């Protein structure tokens, strides 16, 4: 049985570099990295306070190469190369995000988000997030060319939204002042997964949007992409929002759909109010830490985790976050579900860099957040209607 869909508004930003702009209204906020200039505790705290005050049901965040202290190993090895207001504690910096009650912080991992606010769209989607970028100079969360395949093979095949700090190769990635570009291995991973949205930043001057139609199978010339359409920003030079309208009503619908449109893919605990370890929460659809074999964790107050299933749930503001937790030794979780029956022809790629190109001696200038309207499956309330 397929679930109905409903328009969901996603606000996308990246590369804020300690700026805290006023954000358009929306259901979901996604930040694709480089929140700060160098990741000091004071910078990160300022950004977390801004994020937590923002009025969104879900707030999904990945770090970037400038958020140095969030990469603990890198900071310990190279932190002395930067000036700091005081000695930094990477664990303390990370806790700002991992213990937030409204932020979903992703570091080479996936989560399924169920919007749950009474007046919200009650939609759901699966998101994968990574802070990593190809090695260039000496910054955090970087990988060598030989590490790329393992890194990006961990993107689950059923991801609806992929959030990375680096762009994929050839799409909204053209630098003008140096030879940086996106990652070709990431592009191959996106061709394999074909998410609805790919959201990133990193290369400020490449801010923009492309609709990418995929080749069903790479031909002999290895061209993964059949066609590309560049976006014309309706917010450029006007008071309008920088809107990408992919909704069926009033927009150009996306040639793609979420695997979660099938009711069978919604976890039983959400359909019947049963937690994944067999217990029954006090209220339908609301996970209760410590009940039914679930244990509270230090990650965040209100988080339920099961060692038996490797699943974790948390109530974050107006959303339920549901994770399949990867082992600590893994880069990510190489999940390979059956998605061959899901029609996924195109992906919208979004470079959401807020800060414009850095020009030595010149003034800073800023882009608008990019607003995306997209139809996502409705998980809440549809079961009773279908059964009636």
Automatic annotation (TrEMBL):
Signal sequence annotation: none
Pfam families according to UniProt: Metallophos
Coiled-coil regions, chain positions: none
Start and end residues of each stretch annotated as Disordered: 280-302
Domain Calcineurin-like phosphoesterase: 9-205
Single Gene Ontology MF annotation: hydrolase activity
InterPro entries associated with the record: Calcineurin-like_PHP (IPR004843), Metallo-depent_PP-like (IPR029052), UPF0046_metallophosphoest (IPR051693)
PANTHER family recorded: METALLOPHOSPHOESTERASE (PTHR12905), SER_THR PROTEIN PHOSPHATASE FAMILY PROTEIN (AFU_ORTHOLOGUE AFUA_1G06000) (PTHR12905:SF16)
Protein name (database record): Metallo-dependent phosphatase
Higher taxonomy: Eukaryota, Fungi, Dikarya, Ascomycota, Pezizomycotina
